[in-house]
Structure formats: structure tokens, C-alpha cells
Amino acid sequence: MIKAEIKQKDLNLYLKELVWFSCKPLFIILFVCFLPIIYFLLVGYLSDREALYYGYGILCLFLLSLFIIVRCYLFYKKNLKIIFSNTNSQGNIEYLISEENDEFVFENITNKTINRLKFNNIKLIQCYKTCIIIQTNLNQIIWFPKNNELMALFNIKPRK
Length: 160
Hints:
Layout: E1 2-7, H1 11-46, H2 49-83, E2 92-100, E3 103-108, E4 113-118, E5 122-127, E6 131-136, E7 141-145, H3 148-153
Antiparallel strand pairs: 1-2, 2-3, 3-4, 5-6, 6-7
Helix pairs in contact: 1-2
């Protein structure tokens, strides 16, 4: 059994990594669209009106991606506040994580609940700077703070 503790003071770090995990393609779209927007809008206003249509189209894509990222950020922020509403006296949530047969068992010591996740229901496990994120086949996201014991349990090799 491995003990993991999620600290409320690290809430913003977890929030940033969850948004990055779920919206990575949208951040790429924002990055790729930025310079063409400026180019087409400048050319459209200065000389060619047809370029203005391309600029507005890319600007709409940019704004839509930005709206989805902000919406995702607010969604995760609200849910993390709900999760951290049931903390212990130090503002932490404590888990005991173990591996039994063909499943992981997550025992929430703070709330006295037990959850199970079968190995074949895991779609993706990714390790970031401060947390380990597990995505299930139903697109649910489970996250834990990063430590060496959890990385060994989930068979994640440390990066050098």
C-alpha cells in the first residue's frame, strides 16, 4: 500500500496541469493561429479585402479555442474546489493506493471511501511535473501527486 496526500495549497499547480492535459491540442491551435491572424488582418486592412475574410475566419477559430480553454479552466477549478471541500484539518486529502489482482484500489482515508479501477479500463497514464494523471476508457480523469512510489506502482519510468 502506498500513501498519497493531495495538498490544498498545491491546488493551482494541479489546476494548471489538468487544463494542460485536457486542452493541449487547443493550445497548439492558439500558437499556430496567432501569426496568420495578424498577417491576414493587416494585409486585409491595408491592401487586399479578400485576405480579410481569411483573417476573420482564423480569428474565429482562435477565439473559439480560447473560449473552450477558459471554460475548461473554470470547470476544473469548480470541481477541484468541490473535491477539496472534504479535507482533513490540515487541508489535505489522504489516499492509500494498492494493487490487487487485476485492479488498482484507491482508498480515500479522509472521506472513508474505496474506489476500484481495473487495468483494462485504463486508457492513458501520463506523468507531469507535479502530478500523475490517469485517463480511463470513459474519459474520467484521476490524478495524484507525483512521487517515486506511485511512479513505480503505475510502471512509469522517471525522465532524466
